[in-house]
Design a protein that fits this description.
The chain is an alpha+beta fold. It contains 8 helices and 19 strands. It is globular.
């Protein structure tokens, strides 16, 4: 098998990259370890920045987003029992954030890919990358029990933090910046209509709390806790009581409770790799960097990464340029080949 760009991972990074390249007439093959069903049902992030929303419309995959996305023109910072609204639209000349779950984004991107007969190979196994510093890098993998080899001009490592691409780069070629924070977030997903029409970030002497949502029926809430917090010590009533304490206001704001459908403790970590490239392998998204979920940066940063990578690959295939700068699109080089 041969393709210009072999993409490992059908998360936001891999799928947006593939559609950006498709728009430039550059073919790609996406390899994904999980099934389509798994990706389209796994609840993860869900806050889209203006840039991500605009790109979905640019790529013609924004139909459902337009109908189902919840636009938020601001957020509330809550402390001292009072709320302080940050008006995004006013501060940014009209930009806002949109609540639209990541798995819904993936559904839209996968549907667009398959509608264009562009291949996504799901449920691949034993994926490995080879000859990264040569003119003919390759991806080896098994699909439907058959060993396959995909020859490429370039490989995009969009396989997330636990993928195989970053570890395939010699450690001596990478600089890692890593920090674990001395706290975690106890998060719940609840069948409760959102208690507020915008996100609330609360500072309280008992600790931080975040009120968010995934849809008009599903609320997402977080409590700051210890990194080794035992979730078994947190029956739902205790979680709701603590959330009520930390989000309370002097004006008597009411938190709407409901059945908790998912709960867990997430460690807070920042991890950044540089450079995000080794030979013909380019890392994007969580494969290169992870940041705490505080500002909903993960998904949006992954999209920003592949916008730059797609521009570089477009310049290579249209003008034979080997050096393209993410900013001006004119300078800095990428070696090999
Ligand atoms: N072979 C093929 N696919 C793989 C492999 C592998 N060896 N390892 C991982 N994958 C797939 C995962 O199953 C996943 O679908 O790569 C994809 C990586 O996707 P994400 O983890 O979502 O990473 P990314 O696309 O960089 O998006 C980053 O999305 O989930 C949010 O907030 C999260 O910040 C994160 C953002």
């Amino acid at each position: 098998m041969r393709t210009p760009v072999g993409i490992i991972g059908a998360g936001p990074a891999g799928l947006f990259l593939s559609l950006l390249l498709q728009r430039e007439g550059i073919a790609s093959v996406v390899l994904e370890v999980h099934s389509r069903k798994y990706l389209e049902e796994r609840i993860r992030a869900g806050v889209l920045e203006q840039g991500t929303v605009d790109l979905m419309h640019e790529l013609g995959v924004g139909e459902r987003l337009k109908k189902q996305g919840l636009e938020h023109g601001g957020i509330e910072l809550r402390f001292g029992g009072r709320g302080h609204r940050i008006d995004f639209r006013e501060l940014t000349g009209g930009k806002c954030v949109t609540i639209y779950a990541q798995h819904e984004v993936l559904k839209d991107l996968i549907a667009a890919k398959l509608a264009a007969n562009e291949p996504i190979i799901f449920e691949t196994e034993n994926v490995s990358v080879h000859n990264l510093e040569s003119a003919a890098p390759a991806i080896h993998f098994r699909a439907n029990g058959i060993s396959e080899k995909l020859e490429c001009d370039f490989i995009a490592g969009c396989d997330g933090f636990h993928g195989i691409c970053r570890p395939s780069i010699p450690a001596s070629a990478l600089q890692i910046y890593d920090r674990d924070y001395p706290f975690a977030w106890l998060g719940i997903l609840a069948q409760a209509p959102p208690s507020s029409h915008e996100l609330i970030y609360a500072y309280h002497q008992r600790g931080f709390a975040l009120f968010s949502m995934r849809s008009p029926k599903i609320s997402r809430l977080y409590l700051q806790c210890a990194p080794d917090e035992d979730i078994a010590a947190w029956p739902d009533e205790r979680i709701w009581k603590e959330l009520g304490n930390r989000l309370e206001t002097t004006a008597g704001w009411k938190l709407t409770e409901g059945p908790v459908i998912q709960k867990g403790v997430t460690g807070m970590r920042s991890f950044v790799t540089e450079p995000m490239q080794f030979g013909k392998l380019f890392l994007a998204g969580d494969a290169a960097h992870i940041v705490p979920p505080t500002g909903a940066k993960g998904l949006n940063l992954a999209v920003a990464d592949v916008r730059v990578l797609a521009r570089a690959l477009r310049e290579f295939y249209t003008n034979g340029r080997r050096s393209v700068c993410g900013e001006c699109g004119r300078c800095s080089g990428f070696p090999g080949g």
